Amino acid sequence: MLTEVLGEVLLPYFMAQVIKNGIGTGNKGYVIGMGALMILTATIMMCGGVGGNYFNTKASNGMAYLLRKDIYRKVQEFSFANIDQFSTGSLVTRLTNDITQLQNVIRMALIMMLRSPGMLIGAIIMALSINKKLAAVILVVIPFLALALFLLIKTAFPRFGLMQKKIDRVNSAIQECLMNIRVVKSFVRGDFEEEKFGKANEELRQTGMSAFKVVILNMPVMNLAMNITTLAVVWFGGKQIMTGDMNVADLTAFTTYIVQILMSLMMLAMVLLQSSRALASAARINEVLDTKVDLSDEKAKRKDAVVTKGKVEFKDVSFRYYKNSEEKVLEHISFTAEPGEIVGIIGSTGSGKTSMVQLIPRLYDADEGEVLVDGINVEDYSLHHLRNGVGMVLQKNVLFSGSIADNLRWGDEAADDETIETACESAQADQFIRSFTDGYKTSLGQGGVNVSGGQKQRLCIARALLKRPKILILDDSTSAVDTATEAKIREAFSTSLKDTTKFIIAQRISSVIDADKIIVLDDGVIAGMGTHEQLLSSCTAYQEIYYSQMDKEA
Ligand SMILES: Nc1ncnc2c1ncn2[C@@H]1O[C@H](COP(=O)(O)OP(=O)(O)O)[C@@H](O)[C@H]1O
Ligand SMILES: [Mg+2]
Fold first, then answer.
1. What distance in angstroms lies between residue 349's CA and the mean position of ligand 2's atoms?
2. pLDDT higher than threshold 70 for residue 447
3. Mutate to test the pocket of ligand 1, among 327, 333, 355 (most ligand atoms within 8 A of CB)
4. CATH number at residue 488
């Protein structure tokens, strides 16, 4: 880059020499010699330019790569609460578009950083050395330009920030619609979604326009200044030539330097303006990097501990999703599940069943009280060990694209075919998998669109079984499975998972009827706990659920 700057400053000087000493005196040898020197300079400039650009691209690309890696890693650490706070659409924008903005500006800044100040200083020195009086014209123009630039950036900066937010909205709209395209289509909400997207898109267009309106002003304003200055120089310079204080060759070189000075100012202005956009993006990237992950095992006291028995204890646990809200989702929950027990959990929707079991693998942290696994507070385990010991089939579970076997191996990467088949037999999935022409190699469409709801649930159970967890949590995981098959799954559990503590959240009483212990949740509190017989004789909430289901069946 230095060679480019030097060349740019020297070339007009050489030109003036050619005009003065070569053409003026008719010295052909001098013209050819200087011409050769100029070609050499230009060639060196080119080599420098290519090298500079290569390293520049390498640096800006590499920086974007590292930044993406860091943010991605950070997002992987995020707790559910952290992700809720950002929205996935916004995280995607930050990982892609915002980083690209930064990459572009770094690229540009690296080119201009040396070149424009170098050219500016070099050209000013050369202009001063040719004609001090004439160079004063520049001093009049610079403050005016600086003021214009300051005003432009001041208006553009907040508009760029707003624009990135609108990009978030567009990305979120696309993502939500595509992820749920089946629901959208079945409710014939296509038009509505299109309108919603159209609105987000239109808002992006408008904020984009309002931001770029400022940017497009930059060039013409600078151009005008450049033309006026050139005119002034030619005007005053022409007068000096007439009085004999200056020659034509010097004026030619001088005008070139003036153009260089103004060009470098213009480039600086552009970099600054671009930077203001990148600054908005940088702030958004930092927001992700600076987010305190509110759930980590940094302070864990027993990082080496692993779940061996599967005993679960809740001691007076209270929990809420929003730390500033009064309303608790769970209140004063206490119970013990011994290793190998089956614990049924029953309660109306929204009563806090899912919230309660999510505290066991620490998907969220309890606000008050303690959750203990094998007598150790879950916050004292390393997250890796804790979650490895707990198999969870979430209420809203997903499969990934890939074959059935690939998906099942999420539970155990090293599992051989036999182990996989045994797990599938327990989960009552073996039969239907074999009925597919490709069997275990059947490839699942995005998220398992080509299997039924009940089949998907059974695959998810098999996947969890392959982890051979000490604690197994099924969150309403058999809701789409018929009762007969469900009974078979339960039967298989009692033989193949004898030592595993099993939590079964269910809507149907029949799903938990033979559990060792049933917890009845009502609006975040335990309304009753005991075996089916005990609850039926003592717990009114349980009786209500039981008889309403009896009525339906009758
Ligand atoms: N991610 C979340 N953020 C905020 N509130 C939530 C979240 N998940 C559930 N809730 C609220 O917590 C309460 C209990 O929900 P949940 O535990 O899912 O009930 P259940 O599984 O018994 O149907 C509900 O009032 C629900 O609105
Ligand atoms: Mg639930």
1. 6
2. no
3. 355
4. 3.40.50.300
Task: Count how many residues are written for the chain.
Answer: 554
Tell me the two tokens of residue 455. 């089949």
CB 363 near ligand 1, within 6 Å: no
Residue 301 domain flag: no
Q: Is the pLDDT confidence value at 245 over 60?
A: yes
Q: Which of 213-222, 348-357, 405-414 has the highest mean pLDDT?
A: 348-357
Residue carrying the six token digits 């039967």: 491
Per-residue model confidence (pLDDT) at position 140 = 81
Are 445 and 351 found together in one domain? Answer: yes
Query: The domain containing residue 272 runs over which residues?
Result: 2-290
Contact 52, 1 (CB under 8 A): yes
> How far apart (Å, rounded) are the C-alpha atoms in residues 317 and 369?
4
Same domain, 338 and 266: no
Number of domains within the chain? 2
What percent of the chain stands above pLDDT 70? 99
Q: How confident is the model at residue 59 (pLDDT cuts 50, 70, 90)?
A: very high
CA angle 89, 93, 96 (to 5 degrees): 135
Query: Residue 196's CB: how many other CB atoms inside 10 A?
Result: 15
Structure token pair of residue 437? 């022409």
What span, in angstroms and rounded, lies between the C-alpha atoms of 10 and 45? 11
pLDDT at 377 over 90: yes
* Number of continuous H segments (helices) and E segments (strands) in the chain: 19, 12
**Claim to verify: residue 273 and residue 317 sit in the same structural domain:** no
Alpha helices in 180-247 (DSSP H): 181-186, 190-243
Q: Is 39 inside a domain boundary?
A: yes
Residue 89 contacts residue 169 (beta carbons within 8 Å): yes
Of the listed ranges 113-127, 198-212, 417-431, 515-529, the least confidently predicted one is 113-127
d(CA 190, CA 388): 41
**In the beta sheet, which residues pair with residue 127?**
none
- How confident is the model over 171-195, as a mean pLDDT? 82
Q: Is residue 302 part of a domain?
A: no
Is residue 410 domain-shared with residue 283, that is, in the same domain? no
The finding on whether 243 has its CB within 6 A of some atom of ligand 1 is: no
pTM of the model: 0.70
What pLDDT is recorded for position 554? 55
Q: What's residue 325's pLDDT?
A: 78
> Residue 89 Cα, ligand 2 centroid: separation in angstroms?
25
